[in-house]
Design a protein that fits this description.
Strand order of the largest sheet: 1-2-3-4
Number of helices: 8
Distance between the termini: 61 Å
Order of helices and strands: HHHHHHHEEEEH
Radius of gyration: 21 Å
Structural class: alpha+beta
Shape: globular
Length: about 180
């Protein structure tokens, strides 16, 4: 079968346009963040606690857990004293919860709950960049492709994109709550 030179050029142009449009979807910032997100995923898959800790901001995540505990204690209808005790206990409780939840094993369980299976390839950097959305203020959000909601948020700190916020429903899904 003979392919005409004009048709060959058209196919080449279409391929080039497809590559350029794919590249346009992933900005340099998103590609850089995706590289660090991939490194975080590798540390989760491999159970590498040091690599995991390098890619999370434990202090920011503890603060998120504390804010959720404060909100729950205020919403529980325990009155002023009960809410005050909840606020008072939220600091130590958030650090304990952070110690229990912010581990590679828990995030691996979350990945399993979302359908990832051992032995499956991790998403490549370009695929990860496709689900990262800039939030402003130097933050990038990893969205759920099905719902469009933000699942995880990363902030660039000292040249590394670190996990700084987790939709706590994500962690609950992995822990079976």
């Amino acid at each position: 079968m003979r392919v005409f030179p004009k048709a060959r050029r058209t196919i080449a142009w279409l391929g080039l346009c497809g590559l350029l449009s794919l590249q346009a979807c992933a900005t340099p910032e998103r590609l850089e963040a995706a590289g660090d997100v991939h490194a975080l995923l590798v540390s989760i898959r491999d159970g590498d606690r040091a690599g995991f800790d390098d890619h999370i901001d434990r202090s920011a995540l503890d603060d998120e857990i504390q804010a959720a505990l404060v909100h729950r204690s205020e919403a529980a209808g325990l009155g002023g004293t009960g809410a005050g005790l909840g606020v008072l206990a939220s600091g130590p409780l958030s650090r304990v919860a952070g110690g229990l939840l912010l581990r590679p094993e828990v995030f691996r369980a979350v990945a399993y709950a979302y359908g990832y299976r051992p032995g499956e390839a991790l998403p490549r950097t370009l695929a990860l960049a496709a689900v990262l959305r800039p939030q402003g203020g130097g933050r990038i959000c990893a969205i759920d492709p099905k719902t469009g909601s933000c699942l995880l948020s990363f902030t660039r700190e000292s040249g590394v994109w670190r996990l700084t916020w987790v939709n706590l429903r994500v962690l609950r899904k992995g822990t079976g709550e």
